[in-house]
Amino acid sequence: MINTLFCNHIQKLVSHKSQLSMAAGKKKSWLKVLIFIFFQLLMVFILLEILLSVIYFQKYGNDSLASIQLYKKIKNKFKSDNTYDIRNQQTVRPGSSLKINAKIAAEVKESNIEVYEPWLQFKTADFKGQYVNIEGALRKTAPDASYTASADTVSIYFFGGSTLFGFNVADGETIPSQFVKLYKEKFAHGKSIKVFKYGMPFYYSHQELMFLSNLLFTGYNPGLVIFLDGLNDFRFVKASYYRQPFLVIF
Questions:
Q1: 3-state DSSP call for residue 160?
Q2: Whole-model pTM above 0.70?
Q3: What percent of the chain has pLDDT over 90?
Q4: Where in the chain are the domains?
C-alpha cells in the first residue's frame, strides 16, 4: 500500500514537472519568435533607412532619420488644402480660386528644402512643380528676359531672402518677373536684359555678398546687381553680428 502511494506520488511529480517543462518550452518558443520578429523588423527598418538616405533624403531631408522625413512628406500629401498657409493670396491674385492659391502655397512649402553649399552653408534644393521651379540655386523667372534690337544684353542678378525668392507666389509673380514686365512696358526699345534670381529663404546681406563673390570668382559676369534686404538682417541679428549663416547661429 505504501509503495503504491509512493509510486503514485512520484508519477504526479514527474507529470507536473513535465507539464512545467512543456510550459517553459512554449514560453521560450514564443520568446524566440518575438525576438526573431523584432530583429526582422529592425533589419527591414535599417535597410529602408539606408535606401532612403542614399537615394534622396540624406541630401534633401531636414530630419536626422530619412524614414521620419518620408513619414512627414506622406503626411503632408494627405493634408487638406486648408492647412497650407494661404494668407494674402487673394490680394496677390484677386479672383483666383482657393484651390489654386493653396496649390501655390503647398508647392512653395514643399520646395523649402535646404542643401549644403560650400562657403554659404546652404542653398535651396532643386525643385520642379507647376508653379515653383528651382534649378542650381536659381528660381525660375517668367518672363526672364526682354530682348530688343539692342546688340548687347545686360545680365541683372537679384539677391535677397524669402521676399525676393517669392514666398507663396508663382514663378511669374516674383519681383524679378514683375521687373521684366515693367521694363518691357517702359523701355520697349532700350537695351536687352536678362534677369537671374538668386533669392534664398533665410539669407541676409552678408551671406548674399559671399554668394555674389563666389559667383564672380567662378566666372560669372553680371552687368547689374540688385539686392533686396532688410528684415533678415534684423530678424537674425546674431547672424548679422557674427557674420555667420542663420543655421550656424541657431
A1: strand
A2: no
A3: 38
A4: 114-249
